[in-house]
Amino acid sequence: MASVLKNLVYQMVGVLIIIFVLSGFAFAGNDENVKISIATKNLLVGMKSENDGLRRSSIYFVGKYKIVEAINALSEQLAKEDDANTRILIALSLYQIGSSEGLTAIKKAATNDEDAKVRRICSEIYNALFENGYSLSLEKENN
């Protein structure tokens, strides 16, 4: 009787191990998407932080990794950001992401920003896109 019970326990443990292993394989593909989604949300929250370092780092990484979901938040932040250097960083991130919405925000900053340095750099970014053969839709034209 004890050996039958012992075998039953081993079989149950074996079945549980197999179920856990197989369920891990079933969800392995989604795990990476979940991590990316969480990272994106964290960067979007970080962009609105009162901590200057966190805000700037988040803005930088949004541009570096070309997070398209951040375009609207970057455009809004460009219009309301107090620090001129951070506005320049936002414009560079929008440039790196490469969207027509971002280009529109850069153009607006190039003409309307209160700081001459921001206007000049945004103007250079805007002009550089067209000198490199990009149309307003930011798709490279075949010459």
Structural class: mainly alpha
Outline the low-pLDDT stretches.
137-143
Helix coverage percent: over 70%
What is the number of helical segments per DSSP (H or I, 4+ residues)? 6
What number of structural domains do the residues give? Answer: 1
- Strand fraction equals under 5%
CATH architecture, please? Alpha Horseshoe
CATH topology: Leucine-rich Repeat Variant
Number of strands: 0
Mean pLDDT: 80
Write the CATH homologous superfamily.
Answer: Leucine-rich Repeat Variant
Sheet with the most strands?
none
Radius of gyration, in Å, reads 25 Å
Using the alpha-carbon principal axes, give the shape: elongated
* SSE string, helices as H and strands as E: HHHHHH
* CATH domain class: Mainly Alpha
Span between termini: 84 Å
What does this structure look like?
The chain is an all-alpha fold and about 140 residues long. The protein has one domain: Leucine-rich Repeat Variant (Alpha Horseshoe). About 80% of the residues lie in helices and about 0% in strands. The chain contains six helices and no strands. It has helices at about 1-45, 50-65, 70-80, 85-95, 100-110, 115-130.
Search tags:
143 residues; Leucine-rich Repeat Variant; 6 helices; disordered C terminus; single chain; mainly alpha
